[in-house]
Specification:
Distance between the termini: 145 Å
Strand content: 5-15%
Structural class: alpha+beta
Number of helices: 13
Order of helices and strands: EEHHEHHEEEEEEEEHEHEHHHEHHHH
Largest sheet: 5 strands, antiparallel
Shape: flat
Helix content: 40-55%
Strand order of the largest sheet: 6-7-8-9-10
Length: about 525
Amino acid sequence: MPTGVNGSPVDMDHADQTYGVKTYGPSNVTSLNLPLVELSDDEQATVVRLTQLVESKRYGLELIDAYYRGNVHIQDLGISIPPQLRNVYTTTGWPRVAVDALDRRLNVDGFRYPDSNDVDTDLQEIWLENDLDAEHPLAHLDALVFGCGYVGVGSPATGPNTIDTPPLITVESPLDIAVEWDARTRTIVAALRLFGFEGTRQGTLYLPDETISVIKSAGGWTVTDRDQHNLGQVMMVRIPNRPRSYNRDGASEITPEIMSITDAASRTMLGMAVAGEFFSAPQRYILGADEASFQSADGTQKSVWETYMGRVLALERDPDGNVPTVGQFSAYDPSVFTKVIDSYAQRMSSLTGLPPYMLGFATVNPTSADAIRAGEGELIRRADHKTVMYGKGWRDVMKLALTVRGGHLPDAMAKISTVWSATATPTIASTTDAVFKQVTMGYLPATSDVTGETLGYTAVQRERIEIDRKTDEGTSLLMELAHNMDAKALRVEKSITADMAATPDSPGDAGSSGEGRVPGVPAGG
């Protein structure tokens, strides 16, 4: 018998009693919901929180990006700059120099398992299929500028998700992403990426077991797709720069100190430009000249430029016979400003670790090679420090990629290491000398992969060298075998020739052969 909402029996013969039926017999009939087009209450709350976070941090990130791109118009103090020249634009470009100097030293070559001496080909295939050899510096640059870079991992854009189809890995913009972080497990528990397309506002909500695509409508967020991967991981990886225990999102390399010095140096450059406009032509003065010296033939007043460039050098004597005095003030000296800019450059060098010559600070003596290496020491140490945190992020990316592709990870996956190119400025002579000494003393094998990596060869180059080495070893072995066979044949030929030479001409020649002699008895005795 069917039961109603209150549990009482329902007479199915009466139409007015069938409303509210929820069960019929032993089976339960659940109420209809639309999980594909509606967000749950928890999902809706997560989207609202992360949307507010994206919007709240966007202005600060765009300001930092403006300093990197050199698009910040400095605030004039309103003292030495005339109103007509306050729109003149000057910039030093030091924030970009500081960031790019680090970015150029951070290049991933591949990934290596602990029991291997070379880059893993399976992981390298995923890396190259997603063009990450060219795309991965985007995440590094975002991390250096914005304080954090983001990399998303998902199912292949086309085709089924199989072993032979690499997952899709993309570098995402920090301007459009916000995440919620679990400090205890050191994992992302939720992430949101916002974007617009054809005037609409869309987004992607990343949760541990599914990735939800949503679109903003008048009634709120509407679900357009759900990818229920059930992997228990958010398909988003964060690569932070200079993270703190209280701020896991990291911090930009363009610090407030760098912004302040950039503003000060830009104002100084603007002052130099204004002084150049006003004082590039030396100012002159005239004493004792009459008014006619500054008038045209028709009696009209000459312009300032005509007076300066005209007859001021050919003045007549006054009625008393005295010649007017003409003089010139000191010419414009830009060193007043350049010395201040050099002082700012030295301060910027101490903050960024850049050698002063990279910031345009010129010295009297040319910089030697040893001085260049010593000056880049701090910059190299900073780059090496970045590889530790960035390397962890890329390892997490590859773990997610293998999980998406195969559903499980190899046993040694937790111990893989990211292989980086050398962060130091390559000096072939000194590096080769150091490696040669280590090989000579027997500590470093000459054919070790570490030797090639230390010499600056990339993973692809080291693999080619290894193939060439095996080819050369095989060729050398064949040549040695051929040489030994030739030598053996030559020895056999010489032996046969010697034996033939030792054979007597006639068998009966006892005298020559010694036959018929009694042992111990001298010949003829």
